[in-house]
Write a structure and sequence with these properties.
Length: about 375
C-alpha cells in the first residue's frame, strides 16, 4: 500500500472520523484508524462500537492531490498518526506500508516509521438496509438536534432517557428529549417517499457528534434505519449509530392542554434577565430562581438569592399577560437552555399552578415546538 496526498486535505477529510475514535477502549484496535486504499481512492474509518464514521477520499477530486501507487489496508494508532500528519513540514506526504505492518510516512526532511495493525482484525461496520430511506436537509436536522437534545438525560440510571426519541409518520418527524425534569419537543416536515413509520431512540451523544460533522457545503442527509442501527449519509461520509433498546416513556400526557396564566416575551430579553438572576442562584446550593407574576399590575418579577452573597430582583414588562397571579420557582439553567433554543423568537409561557410543569412555545406555530420545565417546591 502506497499513496501520496495533500496534507491539509487529508486532515480536513478525516476530522469527522476522529470523532468516533476513543482514546481508551476495551477493544484496543478501536483506538486506531482504519485506512483502505483502492484504485478509486482512500476509505478512512473510525469506530467506538456505539458510533462509527467512515469517509471516502476520492482520487477523482483534484483538490485531494491523491496519487495511488498500490492498494492495501492498515490500522494505525489514531492519536499518534493524526499528530504526526499535522506536524509534517510539506504540503504533501507519502504513506507506504513496509514489512510486518510497519508504515513509513515521509514529507520533505521528515520520516516517521510507526507500527500498525492488521486491517482484517478491525470490526466490520454495521449492515443497514438502504432500500427504505428518508431525506432531510442538513440545516433542518442540525436545528432539530440543537433545539431538543440538551433536554436528554446525562445519567445512565435510565439509559433510554439519554437518547432523542424520533417518531416518523407520513411526512412528519417528531423529536422528543426529556430527563424527567424538563422536556423538549420539535416537529419538522421531511421527505418520506415510502411513507414508512418509525419509532426509535438515538443516543444524544451520537446526534451531537453528527451535527458537528456538518459543513456549510452539506445540503441533504439521507437516513437509513435498521433494527438496531441508524445510518446518516452526507457528502462522502457515512455516520452509523446504534439505537437504544427499550420503549421510550409516553410524553404526550406530560404536556398541559390548558393554562391559567399566560405571558409573552421576546425570548432573548427574558434570557438576559434569567442569566442575571442566576448569577446569585448559582452561588446557592439549591440553584433556584423565583418568578412572581402580578397580572393586575402587568408585571413579572424575577428574583435570585444566595445567603452567602446577596439577592437580585428584576421587574419585567411582558408583551402580554393574562390569567391568575402566580408565584413559581424553578432551575434557571433549564429555562436558559430552553430560551437559547428559541433564539430571538417571541414566545408564550403558559402556567397551570406553582407545582405543575409550565411550557414555552413560539407565539406562532405553537404546536411545532414545545419546551416544558418542572418547577421546584420551595416550601
Amino acid at each position: 500500500m502506497k499513496f501520496t496526498i495533500n496534507r491539509n486535505q487529508f486532515i480536513r477529510q478525516i476530522s469527522n472520523v476522529q470523532r468516533a475514535i476513543s482514546t481508551k477502549s476495551t477493544i484496543p484496535i478501536l483506538t486506531g484508524m482504519k485506512l483502505v486504499l483502492t484504485t478509486e481512492g482512500l476509505t478512512v474509518t473510525g469506530s467506538n462500537v456505539d458510533l462509527s464514521i467512515q469517509t471516502f477520499i476520492a482520487q477523482s477530486d483534484s483538490d485531494n492531490e491523491l496519487t495511488i501507487d498500490s492498494p492495501g489496508a492498515i490500522v494505525l494508532p489514531a492519536r499518534f498518526f493524526i499528530e504526526i500528519i499535522k506536524k509534517l513540514p510539506e504540503t504533501q506526504f507519502t504513506f507506504e506500508i513496509l514489512n510486518n505492518n510497519q508504515v513509513l510516512i515521509t514529507s520533505g526532511i521528515s520520516k516517521f516509521t510507526i507500527n500498525g495493525l492488521d486491517a482484517s482484525d478491525y470490526p466490520h461496520l454495521p449492515e443497514v438496509e438502504t432500500s427504505d430511506q428518508l431525506k432531510i436537509t442538513a440545516e433542518i436536522l442540525k436545528q432539530l438536534v440543537s433545539e431538543t437534545v440538551f433536554a436528554a438525560s446525562t445519567q445512565e440510571t435510565r439509559p433510554i432517557l439519554t437518547g432523542l426519541h424520533l417518531k416518523i409518520k407520513a411526512d412528519q418527524l417528531l423529536a422528543v428529549a426529556t430527563d424527567s425534569h424538563r422536556l423538549a419537543q420539535r416537529i419538522v416536515e421531511i421527505t418520506n417517499q415510502n411513507q414508512n413509520e418509525f419509532d426509535l431512540v438515538v443516543p444524544a451523544k451520537s446526534l451531537m457528534e453528527l451535527v458537528r460533522c456538518f459543513t456549510e457545503n452539506e445540503t441533504e442527509v439521507t437516513i437509513s434505519i435498521s433494527e438496531n442501527q441508524i445510518l446518516f449519509e452526507f457528502g462522502q461520509t457515512l455516520f452509523y449509530s446504534r439505537l437504544l433498546e427499550g420503549n421510550y416513556p409516553g410524553t404526550d400526557r406530560l404536556i398541559p392542554q390548558e393554562s391559567t396564566t399566560q405571558l409573552e416575551f421576546e425570548a432573548k430579553n427574558l434570557l438576559e434577565s434569567v442569566e442575571r438572576a442566576s448569577l446569585l442562584s448559582h452561588a446557592s446550593r439549591n440553584n433556584v430562581v423565583r418568578l412572581e407574576i402580578d397580572t393586575a399590575n402587568n408585571k413579572v418579577t424575577l428574583t435570585g438569592n444566595s445567603p452567602e452573597v446577596g439577592t437580585v430582583a428584576e421587574t419585567m414588562q411582558p408583551q402580554a399577560i393574562k390569567g391568575d397571579n402566580l408565584d413559581i420557582s424553578f432551575n434557571p439553567d433549564y429555562l436558559k437552555d430552553a430560551l437559547n433554543a428559541f433564539g430571538e423568537t417571541p414566545i408564550s409561557l403558559e402556567f397551570t399552578s406553582a407545582l405543575h410543569p409550565f411550557t414555552l412555545k413560539p407565539t406562532t406555530d405553537a404546536e411545532s415546538f414545545i419546551q416544558l420545565i418542572t418547577p421546584i417546591r420551595t416550601f
